[in-house]
Design brief:
The chain is 41% helix and 16% strand. With 280 residues, it is of the alpha/beta class. The protein has a domain of 168 residues: 3-Layer(aba) Sandwich (Rossmann fold). The structure holds NADP nicotinamide-adenine-dinucleotide phosphate.
Length: 280
């Protein structure tokens, strides 16, 4: 039975990947800065902090594979993840799956792209996943509080996004540990691109109450994010991401989920139907 270290195990993608790996017969090490004991079969929780190198070796030693999930909106992420990649090589970890983000390969200076390049050059067996915005941002992620209040304020304009469910990214991640996807890079999207008005309508229908989307300016979003406690560098990073959406660069649809898993990715309508209890 292979043991996979899942970083970011408490986040939306980490949780989904753990569930998929366990269902497929892997043993999972769930890494967190605040690990809680687990009684689930084949799950071991481990203390892991990208900013604390002392936690890296105990988590990686004896792992057959590792899923690297960078802290979100973090311009310093290369300094955090690259040493972990180096240690994985030193310890002979069999395969590294890096969760990156859609389109980062268009900007060689993007933090996640710099980690991709480090991984590619490292000599470690790897797969790179580049997902679009997660559907789960609206259920458990940073947009959930706005959805609960019925008003989504974003500087997304009318730009469309081919949102993907973390469950589909998790399925690709789990498949990547099978050994058949070494050196591959996948751009992962849902089956269709929707703007945030359409998303709000689908959430409203599933929730049985009105949830509206309001397009705001980049400056308004930036100031709102900072007022809500987001560090300034992260707020600027988020503003940049939504300029990508406004420009229509998040709208592309790929077949990569279908190619890797043999299954079509979940639509937003189906996701909303499955998630309705969260929004009621
Ligand atoms: N959300 C999206 O739409 C989206 C789209 C494309 C790509 N991505 C990428 O996917 C990744 C995860 O995003 P997300 O939205 O899923 O985030 P999330 O749900 O908020 O999860 C973030 C995870 O990062 C962990 N973390 C934070 N700081 C850490 C540190 N110093 N050391 C170790 N772990 C740390 C947290 O674990 P603990 O607090 O338990 O330590 C948490 O599990 C990010 O790299 C993001 O750029 C996200």
């Amino acid at each position: 039975m292979k043991t996979i270290l899942v970083t970011g195990a408490t986040g939306s993608l980490g949780r989904a990947t753990m569930a998929t790996l366990i269902a497929r017969g892997f043993r999972v090490r769930a890494a967190s800065r605040h690990p809680q004991p687990s009684t689930a079969p084949n799950v071991q929780t481990v203390h892991f902090d990208y900013t604390d190198p002392a936690t890296h070796r105990p988590a990686l030693e004896g792992s057959d594979g590792v899923l690297l999930i960078a802290p979100p909106l973090d311009v310093e992420s290369p300094a955090k993840l690259n040493p972990v990649i180096d240690l994985a090589r030193e310890l002979g970890v069999g395969h590294v799956v890096l969760n990156s983000a859609l389109g980062v390969d268009a900007d060689e200076n993007a933090p996640l792209r710099r980690i991709e390049r480090h991984l590619i050059a490292s000599g470690v067996s790897y797969t790179i996943l580049r997902p679009n915005f997660f559907m789960e941002n609206f259920t458990t992620g940073f947009l959930a509080p706005m959805v609960r209040q019925g008003e989504i304020y974003l500087a997304a304009g009318d730009g469309k996004t081919s949102f993907i469910s973390a469950c589909d990214i998790a399925a690709v991640a789990a498949e990547s540990f099978s050994g058949a996807h070494t050196g591959r890079e996948y751009s992962l999207t849902g089956p269709e691109a929707l703007d945030h008005h359409e998303v709000a309508q689908l959430i409203s229908r599933a929730a049985g109450r009105t949830v509206s989307y309001h397009a705001i300016s980049e400056e308004e979003m930036l100031q709102g994010a900072i007022q809500n406690g987001l560090p300034e560098s992260a707020a600027h990073f988020m503003a940049l991401l939504y300029s990508v959406v406004r420009n229509g660069w998040a709208a592309g649809v790929t077949d990569d989920v279908q190619e890797v898993t043999g299954k079509a990715p979940l639509s937003f309508a189906a996701f909303a139907g499955e998630s309705s209890a969260v929004w009621k």
